[in-house]
Write a structure and sequence with these properties.
Helix 11 runs antiparallel to helix 12. It is globular and about 90 Å long. Strand 37 and strand 38 form a beta hairpin. By secondary structure, the protein is an alpha+beta fold. The chain contains 16 helices and 50 strands. Among the domains are: 185 residues, no CATH class; 304 residues, no CATH class; 140 residues, Lipocalin (Beta Barrel).
Length: 900
């Protein structure tokens, strides 16, 4: 009897042990191996799959995504050191490999990978522990009772460390992390992850689980606002989108502490973004709130704002409350915040409100502004057929729709169809209306429209970011350890494979349904055409050009049109048509301004010859609507006016002023479109030419102009003609006189003015024009002339040192970035271009050719561009193509270069 009992007890024990092993092998044993400080866990049996070069140009794979890509790079770097390609592929194929990310030091993160092993893998594992002695060696030591192997090269460089369990090969490029694994074996810890973090279904590409604090830190500066809409933990299951251009991660997580946000969207059916025709192409960041019941949403939002944690918002909302009921009732399905690209680190924002009754919505918005303390009605302006009104009250959108919509120092409002448009500056509003007029919006871009209509899901809330776009601060605001992990290198571009990141959320009674979308809308170019100069179009004219062609609209458009100045004619070329205007009295000397001069809802183009300013109206150019353009309007220039530079009067309170130009005596003249004449706007106290370009500054009180004269007189005028206190400032003294051949510049995000003397003294001035710092830059044996080198839009600057045959481009501190030598004496022209989407380059024209360089001095394109005059450049972000419009003798040529 006792024998039977003992046999029964033994059988139960064996069965229990086997059951435990089976259950433990499914994931619980792995939980015992993962150190508890894991920031995230990846799991995939497809990440190591190879993808063809052709497929990578049109599709996105999991291995191209940052974090996933970095994990795979570390795995392959380790395994391929141990074995040949064939044996490694056999070892990893079909295996669900897990990766965990951990802090390896204060500013470094690293991965641990966990590869399931089987009996058939013994040959590879033997090869791993006994590598080719001519290439690698393996050392071992015992730590916490576990044997740890260290794989090293013959030069004692560590390749990685690993340990072997009954079921896993656990490895890392960090020996510290492997010791952490060994320390935890046998001491089961509780991870903040479920078992689902370790398993991948057969229809998934992979799984990603993140801890809440990690998720919040990756939203950087916007984290304090955006994280309110996020779940406390995300467990995402990745699948490809229908278009194969994006990967979509789906998650369903508990509401947790997000009950207030869930209440805000109670009764609101998740919706897609419906306003594709209103989203400008230059959008870098997009936030969308979709609602189906505006009245209910308004009531819930009123409760949320009434109990806001910010005293300012709570007090402001109590003042606005009488106007909010009518405002919320008139809102339609979309609340959109578009943050546009910005080259100068200033938020350029648009609020787009789809309405049920746009007139009622506009009136309610204005009433809210007056209740908040806005001053009397500002003059109504018109631009491209839209009436634009200034409501000079700060943070009105945030007061009405939550702190997600901060960043509006003012509200410039207009109506477009059934939508109310709110911009945070007049410049942003004008730029936006130009994009609407030209049709450079997401609905006109097939891939962006597909992204909105198919890839992104219906949701209550959407946050969308386009990386590698100027002023996209997502990556720059990440913790240093994350930036180090994902920092691109020459051979491993990491973040460059990812263009779009979108987070979407829909809120139920108990769950938050989340979607994370990763991918790109621009296609990769093949090696055969990348960085090659390709001739797209060539147009032969009867006589040689007297100056460079003037582009009208987009160079990538099939309806490409431009002005070609001939000896006494202005030729407008449109597709296969040519219109000739007589009376051009010389070559074009200035840049071109696009303004609504005639107030007819279209853009006119302004440029100057030595004696005349011309206003050209190209007319409608859409297919089937082409018409003969009007004859250019000629306006005589005042005697002594400098014909090389036109500026836009941003922020002026005088609505009829459309352009500014400098006089040789130092005065500033303005073009009045009502009288169609130049009038002196600002008078210089000392005679002397202004160093161009002068800077137009949009100030809270109106327009300011910063202009430096060659003798060191620094002027800073107000819109009304007076100068700010302490101005004009005199740079230099009776003992030291400075001469300047370049401008002074006040960077938009700084309070100090920058300039440099001709002999290389870099000067920094405070807001009152007083010298606060001086640095003498290095001058080579062949001394050159120094000048401030701003880009054409005055959003940033570099420094330039030039001689008759050499050009050196310096950074803002005076350190040399690159040098171009052996230029043709007296036939050189250097320009700095910031074209959007993070594309910045320098053009150097020498003789009859122009060479393009990036800011590190690497040539762009495989050959120089033939050009008798400085070229015109545009970048088309939908195709990643750089377009160059050039003139050679009596021909106009359009070239393109496909960038990465």
């Amino acid at each position: 009897m006792n024998k039977r009992i003992w046999i029964g007890v033994g059988l139960v024990a064996v069965l229990g042990w086997l059951g435990y092993r089976l259950a433990d092998s499914s994931g619980r044993s792995l939980r015992a191996l993962v150190p508890p400080d894991a920031l995230l866990i990846l799991a995939s049996d497809r990440l190591q799959d190879s993808v063809s070069e052709q497929a990578l140009r049109t599709q996105v794979s999991l291995r191209q995504m940052p974090v996933f890509d970095e994990a795979l790079v570390r795995l392959e770097r380790f395994l391929y050191a141990a074995g040949d390609t064939a044996s490694v592929r056999r070892f990893v194929t079909g295996k669900n490999i897990r990766y965990s990310l951990h802090p390896a030091s204060k500013n470094a993160l690293d991965y641990i990978f966990y590869i399931p092993t089987e009996a058939s893998d013994q040959a590879f594992l033997k090869q791993l522990t006994n590598p080719n002695p001519r290439q690698y060696r393996v050392l071992s030591h015992t730590f916490a009772g576990e044997r740890i192997y260290d794989l090293q090269s013959l030069t004692n460089e560590s390749v990685g460390s690993f340990l072997l369990t009954d079921e896993y090969l656990v490895g890392s490029t960090s020996g510290v992390l492997i010791e952490n694994v060994a320390r935890g074996i046998g001491h089961r810890t509780t991870l903040p992850y479920t078992d689902a973090a370790f398993d991948v279904d057969v229809d998934q590409l992979g799984r990603l689980t993140m801890r809440p604090d990690v998720l919040q830190s990756l939203f950087g500066k916007a984290g304090s606002v955006v994280r309110v809409f996020l779940p406390e933990e995300l467990t995402l299951q990745f699948r490809p989108a229908a278009s194969r251009s994006h990967l979509i991660g789906y998650a369903s997580d508990e509401i947790g502490n997000r009950r207030d946000v869930a209440n805000l969207f109670e009764g609101q059916t998740p919706m897609r973004i419906q306003s594709a025709a209103l989203i400008p192409q230059t959008t870098a960041t997009l936030y969308h709130i979709g609602i189906s019941d505006p009245a209910r949403f308004g009531r819930n939002l009123s409760s949320l704002l009434g109990a806001a944690s910010s005293d300012f918002l709570r007090d402001r909302f109590n003042r606005l409350k009488p106007a909010t009921e009518a405002l919320y009732k008139s809102i339609g399905t979309d609340l959109l915040l578009c943050r546009l690209e910005s080259s100068n680190n200033i938020y350029r924002q648009l609020l787009i409100l789809k309405s049920r009754d746009v007139k009622q919505l506009s009136n309610a918005y204005q009433q809210a502004a007056y209740l908040a303390g806005a001053s009397g009605s500002a003059p109504l302006k018109t631009y491209l057929g839209h009436k634009v009104l200034l409501l000079n009250i700060p943070e009105l959108p945030a007061s009405l729709f939550s702190s997600l919509f901060t960043g509006f120092r003012q509200s410039w409002i207009t109506q477009h169809g059934s939508n109310l448009i709110v911009a945070n500056s007049e410049d942003v509003m004008q730029d936006y209306l130009q994009q609407l007029t030209r049709g450079t919006v997401w609905s006109a871009d097939k891939r962006q429209a597909e992204l909105l209509g198919q890839t992104l899901r219906p949701a209550n809330f959407t946050a969308f970011v386009r990386l590698q776009r100027t002023q996209t601060s997502l990556t720059s605001s990440w913790p240093a350890s994350w930036q180090t992990l994902l920092e691109p290198t020459e051979h491993d571009p990491a973040m460059t494979d990812l263009e779009n990141i979108a987070y979407q959320a829909s809120y139920g009674n108990k769950k938050i349904l989340s979607t994370l979308v990763l991918g790109r809308t621009t296609r990769r170019a093949s090696q055969g055409v990348r960085n090659r100069v390709l001739l797209q179009k060539r147009r032969q004219l009867e006589t040689p050009l007297t100056s460079g062609p003037v582009a009208i609209g987009s160079l990538s458009d099939d309806m490409l049109q431009y002005y070609a100045p001939l000896s006494d004619q202005l030729v407008q070329v449109l597709a296969d048509e040519t219109f000739i205007h007589s009376g051009l009295d010389g070559p074009i000397r200035s840049n071109t301004l696009a303004v609504d001069f005639l107030d007819n809802g279209r853009l006119q183009y302004l440029f100057m010859t030595d004696r005349t300013l011309y206003v050209t109206d190209p007319g409608q150019v859409k297919p089937g609507l082409a018409r003969k353009p009007d004859k250019p309007l000629a306006i005589r220039l005042p005697e002594g006016l400098n014909a090389t530079y036109l500026a836009r009067p941003r922020g002026t309170q005088q609505r009829n002023l459309v352009a500014l130009a400098a006089h040789q005596d130092g005065h500033i003249y303005a073009l009045d479109r009502r009288s169609r004449t130049f009038v002196r706007l600002l008078t210089a106290p000392r005679k002397g030419p202004i160093q161009l370009p002068f800077q137009v500054i949009t100030a809270p009180t109106g327009m300011e102009i910063l202009a430096l004269q060659g003798d060191g007189t620094l002027n800073r005028w107000r819109d009304n003609g007076t100068q700010l206190p302490q101005y004009p400032a005199r740079l230099g003294s009776s003992e030291t006189e400075f001469t300047f051949i370049g401008p002074a510049l006040l960077p938009p995000t700084r309070s100090d003015i920058q300039t440099i003397t001709e002999n290389g003294q870099l000067l920094r001035l405070n807001a009152s024009g007083l010298l606060t710092a001086r640095t003498q830059l290095y001058r080579p044996l062949r001394s050159g002339s120094f000048r401030l080198f701003p880009d054409e839009a005055l959003t940033n600057w570099l420094l330039l040192r030039t001689t008759d045959t050499e050009v050196a481009v310096l950074d803002q501190q005076g350190n040399e970035r690159f040098q171009v030598r052996a230029l043709q004496s007296g036939r050189n022209n250097v320009r700095y271009h910031r074209l959007g989407a993070g594309v910045e380059l320098i053009t150097v024209k020498s003789g009859n050719f122009t060479t393009l360089y990036d800011l590190n001095g690497r040539p762009i394109g495989d050959r120089p561009i033939p050009s008798d005059f400085p070229v015109s450049l545009q970048f088309d972000e939908t195709t990643n193509e750089l377009y160059i419009l050039s003139a050679v003798r009596n021909a106009v040529e359009l070239f393109s270069i496909r960038l990465r």
